[in-house]
Amino acid sequence: MPIYEYACRKCGAGFEKRLKYEERLAAQTCPSCGATGAVLRMSAPALVGAGASRSGSADVGTCPSTGQPCSCGHAHPH
Question: 1-43 has which CATH code?
Answer without folding.
Answer: 2.20.28
